[in-house]
Amino acid sequence: MILVLGGTSDARALADELRGAGHDVLLSAASAYGARLAGEHGTPARGGALDAAGLAELIADAAAVVDATHPFAEVVTGTAKEACALSGRPYLRVPRPAADLPDRVVRAADSAEAARLAVEHAALTGGAILLTVGAKTVRDYVPAALAAGLRVVARVLPTEAGLRACEEAGLEPRDVIAMQGPTSTELDAALLRHLGATVLVTKDSGDAGGLGEKLRAAELAGATAVVVERPADSEAARTTAEVLDWLAGLQEGQSASDAPEVTVAGLAPEPAGTSRRGLLQVYTGDGKGKTTAAAGLALRALGAGLVVTFVQFVKGGRESSELAPLRAAGAEVVRPAAAPTGLLRGTTTEDDRAACAAAWAAARTALTDPGVDLVVLDELHAALRHGLVELPEVLRALAARPPHQEVVTTGRGAPDELLAVARLVTRMEPVRHPYPGVPARRGIEW
User: Fold this and answer.
1) Would residue 26 count as lying in a domain?
2) Is residue 303 domain-shared with residue 416, that is, in the same domain?
3) Are residues 110 and 190 in the same domain?
4) In the sheet where 406-410 sits, what is the strand order?
5) Are 50 and 117 part of one and the same domain?
6) End residue of a domain, out of 206, 228, 250
7) Domain for residue 100, yes or no?
């Protein structure tokens, strides 16, 4: 299945072309309305906002992800790229082409600058400001305009969320126009004249978003056009034809490395002949057995001839009994903690900090080594929970690891961001445990 992200008209057209080429497609739109529009053309679609975990679950079931979201949908694009990197799914970005902005427009880097420029230009004439930037950023404009004594009118999609955003921003009903775009030059010019608006604020959403019509309307009505420039995109832009060519190769069995013009987000190309991609596994929960399961998996990997690095965070004091057979079987075992940890007593000692720093240094080395097949990061979650290792750095290292490398993290309280991008999550639940009444037993608990 090819997952297409985006609910705009060009995203729906892309999904139609992929289906026409024989691909199984699911389109994911940010709204139920966008999904219904796709369904009218026969494209399977789902609608509604997704959190990171929901998006990661969708991506995990896809052979590849084609991101055709709106140029300003930065959050979903960033989340999709990260989830693809950690799950080993190819990520292809097909952005809407940017417009060639004429010299007469006023450019703004973001909504805050656009609000300032809009107020400055409207104050010179005493005219109103017409916003056509979508509902999500209306709140960035209204307070500044009202503080300057200027009328501001927002044109948004006729949805409950859009109307609520306008109300929360402080707009009166008379200052809200609920209408689906894109609209014509004639209508936009008529709106500007009717409202007495001397400033039009819009985004560089490309010709498909009606930008050209808006700019011509502003010129006809004698209004200043303030355009929010689109954010920089680190991924190379791909055309529909390039995506179709690459997916055709994927059907014929080529690997991502056979398509150098297509970005596989956050991953090095998989070596030719490699048939296995490494997953991220998370073992968490309050029950016993997280380290035990990780050690068992490590022994299985060693028995299959794989190279294993087993790193323990914050587990000082007496050494548990699984480490000796792991070493004997050939695993690299890294255990910097010597003194018992203070974390179980709710404190963080200098020994804990030093041990975690050394453990993370060893983990980073293993995560960059293509010769290592399995990396176990035992009690990493405790180190993250107490701020001894930075989560963003961990996520970046996981995203950049060799594509065949399996990673297991253990510990109570796994962070949501890690759970969202894991391909396998096991939660240990203490249904019936004898602790703390029964001391830990050598060979069983330690």
Assistant:
1) yes
2) yes
3) yes
4) 332-334, 308-312, 374-378, 406-410, 280-284, 424-427
5) no
6) 228
7) no
Each residue of 366-387: pLDDT tens digit? 999 999 999 999 999 999 999 9
pLDDT recorded at residue 101: 85
pLDDT band, residue 174 (cuts 50/70/90): very high
The strand pair at 45-47 and 25-29 is best described as: parallel
Residues 87 and 120 in one domain: no
Assign residue 57 the CATH number of its domain. 3.40.50.720
Q: What is the pTM of this model?
A: 0.54
Domain of 331, in residue numbers: 280-427
Of 25 and 251, which is predicted with more confidence?
25
Question: What is the predicted pLDDT for the residue at 436?
Answer: 64
From 228, 250, 266, the end of a domain falls on 228
Task: Give tens-digit pLDDT for 391-440.
Answer: 988 988 888 888 889 999 999 999 988 888 888 899 998 887 776 666 77
Pair (184, 322) in one structural domain? no
Is 49 inside any structural domain?
yes
Write down the pLDDT at residue 352: 87
User: What domain count does the chain have?
Assistant: 3
SS3 labels along the chain: CEEEECCCHHHHHHHHHHHHCCCCEEEEECCHHHHHHHHCCCCCEEECCCCHHHHHHHHHCCCEEEECCCCCCHHHHHHHHHHHHHHCCCEEECCCCCCCCCCCCEEECCHHHHHHHHHHHHHHHCCEEEEECCCCCHHHCHHHHHHCCCCEEEEECCCHHHHHHHHHHCCCHHHEEECCCCCCHHHHHHHHHHHCEEEEEEECCCHHHCHHHHHHHHHHHCCEEEEECCCCCCCCCCCHHHHHHHHHHHHCCCCHHHCCCCCCCCCCCCCCCCCCCCCEEEEECCCCCHHHHHHHHHHHHHHCCCCEEEEECCCCCCCCCCHHHHHHCCCEEECCCCCCCCHHHCCCCHHHHHHHHHHHHHHHHHHCCCCCCEEEEECHHHHHHCCCCCHHHHHHHHHHCCCCCEEEEECCCCCHHHHHHCCEEEECCCCCCCCCCCCCCCCCCC
Over the stretch 274-288, which tens digit does the pLDDT of each residue have? 334 688 999 999 888
Both 421 and 292 in one domain: the answer is yes
Evaluate whether residue 301 is within a structural domain.
yes
State whether 223 and 199 are in the same domain: yes
Q: Which residues contact 325 (CB under 8 A, 6 or more apart)?
A: 299
- The CATH number for 306's domain is 3.40.50.300
